[in-house]
Structure formats: structure tokens, C-alpha cells
Inverse folding.
């Protein structure tokens, strides 16, 4: 029986477990990436492991999220990241070099390899036929130390593409179509594997956009074959030697099939506040907008921004629209300057923002109160772009550009016909401008590298083992689809505290209930009660680490998002799933709960006592014995240390 491409990639890296759906397996990791928001913690953890040099083929530390330097905290963090990188054998990408995923696809992603990144959009590199997975910083630290990465062997979804996209419809619309069909939970436990004749019509940046936002379906990863288009990309990036052809066997067996005729895809928009709240742009057309943002790891490639420049040429951004662009990398910016695209964008009245993530998380570019902000980013969760009243809509670069001019949501096809614009055709440069000298390479004399730590870099808090009787208050009860942005917000105020757990923990759940940190500390810890898909969104491990620091011992939910579940384990928080989801109604905020740790056994229901209501609730833990062992030890670091 033949294999899917996903199986080929997984099986080629298998070091532990049976290669069959649903089984727990360990895989070898070839490459890692971190970004600054998660990287400081990942490197503090890597240092705590006591391994002097990384054992991966390649590890890169990017600074792209928070480059605001209004006091010492961020610059100190950036310097710490550079020092650790030089000492430990990691390539350091300084502020201004590019957004991690865009830059990784340009310079490092290689077909047939595995990549583990402490960012949930790491699957972007699946656009060139690599198996790229997002994880918490602790898992990335362990991968750098040469440990396998453990995951549940995923189901594989065949996304069969036929036809060709129509003019002014682009890759973003394809992934919005996938989200429209399967929703934000539709990819959980699965890899989305793209194939079919339509694949050959998509350039690598298009594939990267689709793979990037597969994360919004909850998928473990997304992967494209490595074909002549990938070879051409690698050649233009001066890396043809890294090309290997890769595709699924014709008789590979899939768990699910999604058919998409690209010629029938139309411009789509995800309305607030979920990426799967998708409708055709024509149905939202006319809605007034106050802001437009081009960029993010989803849509900041040269292809995307050339399309924007093409539509904005000889046009003006609507006077009431605040419009900004963040190019994805120095390489993209260079080509835009050379081709005249930058001039077109500037002349149209667009603000040039930094080559960074900033605006994506509302730093330096947030919508006004109740303002509609059209963005080419991947997430529109409540509060994601700076504050709760912003209404963020996710669209393609083409839709964003057309709407920026008209001041209202506009179908780019209507815009093109109104302004007599011929279809946009992107020609990939023969050879991209390669400027690798901005990367800081590992030191040849690592012993001599002194790691400088600013005053904001606090040591990792010590965590105790799991108690015999786990008891405490239900500190907070929340609904379905609670995101890591709800649990641990990002943004200019919070991100500089990422290397200081006591300080950042004061912001836990601040968009939901600002009293949470104080109440949790006063109650000496307890539980969180959640609905379905608890912890969806980013890989930020602070969403587990900071609640743990405040004393959270367990989370009872209807279900969990994959990366957050792994982060809970890594920081010793017990995840519990209601055996009967309707039991969610039988626990209220403020109830006293109690669990005997000896009752907690994988695959078997046990009782959680609700002492306040005098009833019991049957729960199971969604983790296996190996993970339970980690939780009992009080988290991964304790567990690794105990094994010597
Ligand atoms: Fe950065 Fe936004 Fe992507 S924060 S990594 S551009 S999702």
C-alpha cells in the first residue's frame, strides 16, 4: 500500500512508536526556529537543560515580534537572544531582517526535512515540502537538545486542487475557503496535504500562505509536494542543491478528502472574531472600513505586495482609511524598492511600517474604537490587534488593496473592472536579492561568548510536583474557543515582560477578567473551567506557564487545542475533559473542586468532586501515561532533571 507525503516525512524521521494513526510517536527534528516573543523563554529553558550546543542540523532565532525599543527591556532581550545564539550554535536573525516564517521559507526551509518552531504558524514552511510543526518553547528547547518531538500520529486529509485561480483571487481565498468548509476545529489531529493538478499553478509564496493559515483549522501541519515549482524557488534563492522531489504515492490512503476547484474560488472575508467566520466579499461589500493592513507572516511575500502595488498604482488610499504595510523581509523590501512597487504604495498614501510582526498584534497599528480593520493577517480573535472593540476582518492582499482605495469592503474583481486593471501577473525574479550578511552566525569560539542578561530577565520559577489531593476553587469559567490571546495577551505592554514570568503573569486573562491574577494568588490557585477548543491560537507557552505561576492546577474543558494541551503538560497543569460535555453546566465559577491524584489514569473516567454543590463530575484526562508522568513531576523541566 502506498504512502501519503505526510507519512513519508513522518516515517523517515520516526525514532519512537508505531507509524499508525492515533499512536504516540517521537520524531527526529532537523531544524528549529524561535521568535523573540517565545524565544527568550525557550532559550532560558534550553540553558536550564544544561546542553552546551544545539544538536539540530539548523536552528534559527528570529527577532520579529516586538521591536519597539522605548526602554531597556526589548533591547536587552534581543541582546540575550543574540548571545545565546552565538554561544549555543544558533543562527540569529536581528530586528529588521524579516518575519520568521517568511524569512525561513526564503532562506532555510528545505524539502524532506522536519522543522519545529515555537510559533503556531511554523507550518508555513510546509509550502516547500517540509514537515513543519508549531510547538511550545519547551518542546523546541528539547528538540535543540537532541530529544525527539512527541506527537499523536495524525490523520491525513487530501486537499485535492484542480483548475486555476481567477484573476484577483489568490491563495488567501483558498485557505479561507478551507476554513469556511472545515472551521477552526476541522484540522485538529490532522495534516492537510495538498495535491492535484491545481498545485502546479501555485507559486511557493502562495503555498506558504495556504500552509500558514492551516494553523487556523487546528491542523498539526500542512504540506505541499516538492516539485518543479519548489525547485525553481530554491534555485532563485541560491539553494537548488537542497531540492529533492517529493510527493505522495498514487495509492496513498487518506482519512478525508476535500476537493477544491480553484477556478470556482471567489474573494472571501473572515468577519470578526473567528477566522472561520467566512463569507464571500461580495456579501460584505459596502461595509465602511477605517483601517487596512498589508503584511504578516501570511501575506507579506514579494508576490503579495507586488499585487498590492499593482492595484494601488496611480490610485489614492481613501482619505478616511489609515493604511499600513509591513514587508515580510529585507529581501522583499529590496525587490519592492527596485521594481517601483514601493513607490506605488507610498504614492498611494500607505504608511510604511517596520519589517516585523508588530502590526499583526496591534503594536504600532491598532484600529480605532469600534473600527473595522481589514487585514491580510491570519487571526481576528477578540483583542488580537490591540483592543477588544476593534473589528478585524481577514482578507487577501487584493481585497485589502481595492477596499483601501474605496473606503469600504470591495470585491477586487469589481475594482479591477471599474478602474480597467488587467489581471495581475507575478514574475518571480530569476535570482532573489540575497542578503545573508545580516544573520549573526554562531561563534567559532563559543566558550568566550558571555551571555548578557538585562534586569528584566528573571530566572525560571521553580514548580513543585503534583499534589496527592488536587483541590482549589474554580477560579474562572469561560466558554468555547478561548484563545491563547484571551489567556495571555500579546501587545506592546505585555510582550516586553516575556522573560519575566512574575511580571507577565499579572496580565493573565486580562481581556476576560482583569481581577483573575489577584484572585488566583489570593485563593492559592485552583482550576479553570473551559468549553470546546480551549487554548486555540498561538503556541505561546506563557499561556500555560503564567497561569501555573499563579497557582492554576488543572483545566476542565470540553476539549483542548493541540499546542496548548502540550504546553499545559510541559508546565505541570492537569488537563481534564468532561466525559459528558453537558457536565460543563454543573460547575460554576467559585465552586470548590477536589481530585485525588491516584484516580487520574489515562483512558479511564474518574470523579471530580464539586464540594460546593455536593456532586461529582466524571472526567477523563486527554493525555497518556508519559505526559501524566511529566505533570506529576510538576512539568517537563523537573521531569528531564529527575531523569538526570
Ligand atoms: Fe508574527 Fe502575526 Fe505571524 S505575530 S508570526 S505575523 S501571526
Amino acid at each position: 500500500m502506498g504512502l501519503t507525503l505526510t507519512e513519508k516525512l513522518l516515517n523517515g524521521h520516526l525514532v519512537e512508536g508505531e507509524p499508525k494513526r492515533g499512536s504516540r510517536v517521537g520524531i527526529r527534528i532537523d531544524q528549529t526556529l524561535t521568535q523573540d516573543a517565545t524565544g527568550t523563554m525557550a532559550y532560558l529553558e534550553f540553558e536550564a537543560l544544561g546542553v552546551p550546543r544545539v544538536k539540530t542540523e539548523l536552528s534559527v532565532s528570529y527577532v520579529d515580534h516586538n521591536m519597539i525599543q522605548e526602554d531597556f527591556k526589548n533591547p536587552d532581550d534581543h541582546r540575550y537572544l543574540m548571545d545565546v545564539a552565538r554561544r549555543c550554535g544558533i543562527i540569529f536573525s536581528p530586528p529588521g531582517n524579516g518575519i520568521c516564517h517568511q524569512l525561513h521559507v526564503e532562506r532555510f526551509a528545505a524539502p524532506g526535512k522536519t522543522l519545529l518552531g515555537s510559533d503556531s504558524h511554523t507550518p508555513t514552511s510546509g509550502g516547500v515540502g517540509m514537515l513543519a510543526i508549531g510547538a511550545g518553547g519547551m518542546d523546541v528547547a528539547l528538540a535543540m537538545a537532541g530529544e525527539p518531538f512527541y506527537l499523536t500520529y495524525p490523520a491525513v486529509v487530501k486537499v485535492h486542487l484542480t483548475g486555476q485561480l481567477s484573476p484577483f483571487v489568490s491563495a488567501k481565498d483558498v485557505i479561507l475557503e478551507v476554513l469556511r468548509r472545515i472551521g477552526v476545529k476541522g484540522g485538529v489531529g490532522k495534516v492537510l496535504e495538498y495535491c492535484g493538478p491545481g498545485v502546479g499553478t501555485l507559486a511557493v509564496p502562495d503555498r506558504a500562505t495556504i500552509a500558514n493559515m492551516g494553523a487556523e483549522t487546528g491542523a498539526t501541519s500542512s504540506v505541499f509536494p516538492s516539485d518543479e515549482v519548489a525547485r525553481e524557488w530554491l534555485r532563485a534563492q541560491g539553494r537548488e542543491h537542497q531540492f529533492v522531489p517529493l510527493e505522495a504515492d498514487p495509492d496513498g490512503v487518506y482519512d478525508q478528502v476535500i476537493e477544491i476547484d480553484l477556478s470556482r474560488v471567489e474573494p472571501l472575508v473572515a468577519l470578526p472574531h473567528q477566522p472561520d467566520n467566512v463569507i464571500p466579499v461580495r456579501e460584505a461589500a459596502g461595509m465602511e472600513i477605517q483601517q487596512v493592513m498589508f503584511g504578516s507572516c501570511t501575506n507579506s511575500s514579494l508576490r503579495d505586495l507586488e499585487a498590492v502595488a499593482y492595484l494601488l498604482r496611480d490610485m489614492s488610499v481613501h482619505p478616511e482609511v489609515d493604511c499600513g504595510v509591513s514587508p515580510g523581509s529585507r529581501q522583499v523590501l529590496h525587490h519592492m524598492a527596485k521594481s517601483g512597487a514601493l513607490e506605488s504604495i507610498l504614492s498611494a498614501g500607505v504608511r510604511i511600517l517596520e519589517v516585523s510582526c508588530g502590526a499583526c498584534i496591534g503594536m504600532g497599528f491598532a484600529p480605532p474604537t469600534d473600527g473595522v480593520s481589514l487585514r491580510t493577517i491570519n487571526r481576528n480573535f477578540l483583542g488580537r490587534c490591540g483592543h477588544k472593540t476593534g473589528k478585524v476582518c481577514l482578507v487577501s492582499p487584493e481585497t485589502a488593496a481595492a477596499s483601501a482605495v474605496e473606503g469600504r469592503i470591495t470585491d477586487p474583481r469589481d475594482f479591477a473592472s471599474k478602474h480597467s486593471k488587467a489581471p495581475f501577473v507575478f514574475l518571480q525574479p530569476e535570482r532573489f536579492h540575497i542578503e545573508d550578511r545580516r544573520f549573526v552566525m554562531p561563534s567559532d569560539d563559543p566558550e568566550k561568548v558571555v551571555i548578557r542578561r538585562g534586569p528584566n530577565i528573571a530566572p525560571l520559577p521553580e514548580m513543585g510536583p503534583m499534589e496527592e489531593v488536587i483541590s482549589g476553587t474554580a477560579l474562572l469559567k469561560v466558554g468555547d474557543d478561548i484563545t491563547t490571546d484571551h489567556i495571555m495577551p500579546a501587545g506592546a505592554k505585555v510582550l516586553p515582560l516575556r522573560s519575566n514570568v512574575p511580571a507577565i503573569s499579572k496580565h493573565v486573562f486580562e481581556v476576560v477578567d482583569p481581577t483573575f491574577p489577584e484572585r488566583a494568588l489570593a485563593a492559592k490557585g485552583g482550576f479553570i473551567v473551559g468549553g470546546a477548543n480551549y487554548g486555540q491560537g498561538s503556541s505561546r507557552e506563557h499561556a500555560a506557564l503564567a497561569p501555573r505561576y499563579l497557582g492554576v492546577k488543572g483545566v476542565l474543558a470540553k476539549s483542548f487545542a493541540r499546542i496548548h494541551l502540550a504546553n499545559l503538560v510541559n508546565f505541570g497543569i492537569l488537563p481534564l475533559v468532561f466525559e459528558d460535555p453537558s457536565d460543563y453546566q454543573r460547575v460554576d465559577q467559585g465552586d470548590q473542586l477536589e481530585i485525588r491524584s491516584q484516580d487520574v489514569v489515562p483512558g479511564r473516567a474518574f470523579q471530580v468532586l464539586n464540594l460546593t454543590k455536593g456532586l461529582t463530575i466524571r472526567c477523563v484526562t486527554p493525555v497518556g501515561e508519559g505526559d501524566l508522568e511529566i505533570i506529576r513531576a510538576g512539568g517537563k523541566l523537573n521531569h528531564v532533571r529527575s531523569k538526570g
About this structure: The chain has a mean pLDDT of 96. The chain has 21 helices and 26 strands. The pocket of FE3-S4 cluster is lined by residues 65, 99-101, 119, 121, 296-297, 357, 360-361, 377-378 (CB under 6 Å).
